[in-house]
Design a protein that fits this description.
Number of helices: 12
Largest sheet: 10 strands, mixed
Radius of gyration: 23 Å
Helix content: 25-40%
Number of strands: 20
Distance between the termini: 23 Å
Oligomer: single chain
Length: 441
């Protein structure tokens, strides 16, 4: 993260005035939250519109209180004015698929501008150890945990379930415990999915059944709110004549599954059209997870499930990778809602994988501005958090990133972070690996 300090900082007046109705009376004493007016900045609000230069954003009490053109935002007395000339302000990024376990891992995500993360595979031990986001007072992203992941079989990663009835009961229990969503592993039998999905609908919690072995169309038809990854290995997305040969190759293990699958894919074919229809009719989102499937990145050192490709395998995958890009364009062109997830630490490093994912989405033909919306607003929608975060709007949490260069012109500029704001507090990441709170006054 860059360490360039923000521009000129000045205080309007020393005293602060509370909004009407909040002033104390008698012996009561109130601590007045500091307000900051970030001025002369280009705002990328995450809603899909073009960047808005010469803008101002007022932050008070951890919330965005006003947004407007330079000079049009009225600030209360005592507001600290922060001149961000030449900078870009955008919502904090949301990683829709990662499995952070420690404060250090979360700090690495925050250093990449990620202010919210969905924990996609919580184990019972991790859940009991910290609950939903119990990481102390350190500046870390908001962590969204639905509850221990549903699993079955001899080596469960989550709650070990013996029957569909037990899975249905576990869904109800997690929902009653306040889970924001329910996640299932590929170990859960496909025959249980409809019952699990019905239980999730009754409880009014979304079902995340991504990463299904053999594909995700069945889970999607059952009612999963999210499908993925894009390169799924799902035979149903292949032409019927190609399904048998593909399954034989996949079972033999002679070539990487993603290569064999992409070789036989027809990205604009009728089988893909049926997947598009299923996504749109369910209002489900697609989680591409390109970085873990592409030939470009290597596996991180701690990613034990990740198997690096040989040089020949990498070359073969690169040769058919345009098929994955064409498939992504098909889904995007039909209006399927796309999310951005890093899959860390399974196949990518903390923080790096998320930015690589955005770059791959742009390389596939989606504009940087649209990708930024996928990485912010769409993630908030999928987590049921759009009322709190995901866009720069009045009333939302002041969770945003200030950049040194325009990410809508070059998505790689999303890496050029000046500082991150969490709940109205600004932090910068020093080269020694420590976080430092920025005091503007």
């Amino acid at each position: 993260m860059g360490r360039r300090p923000p521009g000129a900082v000045s205080a309007i007046l020393a005293g602060a005035v509370l909004p009407g109705g909040l002033a104390g009376a008698g012996q009561d004493t109130f601590i007045v939250p500091q307000s900051e007016l970030f001025t002369n900045v280009t705002v990328i609000d995450g809603r899909g519109g073009p960047p808005r230069p010469s803008s101002a954003v007022l932050v008070w009490g951890g919330r965005i209180r006003d947004i407007g053109a330079q000079g049009s935002v009225a600030a209360p007395e005592g507001t600290v004015v922060v001149d961000l000339s030449g900078s870009y302000l955008m919502p904090g990024l949301i990683d829709a698929h990662a499995s952070p376990r420690t404060t250090e891992e979360l700090r690495a995500l925050l250093a990449a501008g990620i202010t919210g993360v969905r924990d996609g595979a919580t184990s019972p031990a991790a859940f009991e150890a910290r609950g939903r986001g119990n990481f102390g007072e350190d500046p870390v992203p908001a962590v969204y945990v639905g509850g221990p992941v549903l699993d079955a079989g001899g080596a469960p990663r989550g709650v070990a379930l013996e029957s569909e009835a037990a899975a249905v009961a576990e869904v109800a229990r997690q929902a009653a415990d306040g889970a924001g969503f329910v996640s299932v592993t590929s170990g859960v039998p496909s025959s249980w999915l409809v019952g699990i999905a019905r239980a999730a609908r009754r409880a009014e919690v979304p079902l995340w059944a991504d990463r299904r072995d053999g594909g995700w169309l069945l889970a999607l038809r059952a009612g999963s709110a999210v499908a993925g990854p894009l390169v799924s290995g799902d035979p149903e997305l292949l032409p019927e004549r190609e399904r048998g040969p593909f399954e034989a190759l996949a079972e033999a293990g002679q070539v990487p599954v993603q290569t064999a699958w992409l070789e036989r894919l027809e990205p604009q074919g009728p089988d893909v059209d049926r997947a598009v229809t299923a996504l749109l009719s369910n209002d489900s989102a697609l989680l591409p997870l390109l970085a873990g499937a592409s030939a470009s990145p290597d596996c991180p050192a701690d990613a034990t499930p990740c198997a690096p490709l040989s040089t020949d395998e990498r070359s073969a995958l690169e040769a058919v990778w345009p098929g994955a890009e064409a498939l992504l364009r098909t889904f995007h062109g039909h209006g399927v809602r796309l999310l951005v997830g890093s899959d860390a630490p399974r196949t990518t490093a903390w923080g790096e994988g998320f930015h690589r994912e955005m770059e791959l989405l742009v390389e596939a033909g989606i504009s940087p501005l649209e990708v930024l919306g996928m990485a912010t607003r769409n993630g908030a929608i999928a987590l049921g958090q759009l009322h709190e975060r995901g866009t720069i709007e009045i009333g939302k949490r002041a969770d945003f990133v200030v950049l040194e260069a325009n990410p809508a012109a070059d998505i790689r500029n999303a890496r050029r972070i000046s500082f991150v704001v969490i709940d109205g507090d600004a932090w910068t990441y020093d080269r020694d690996g420590s976080w430092r709170r920025i005091r503007f006054n």
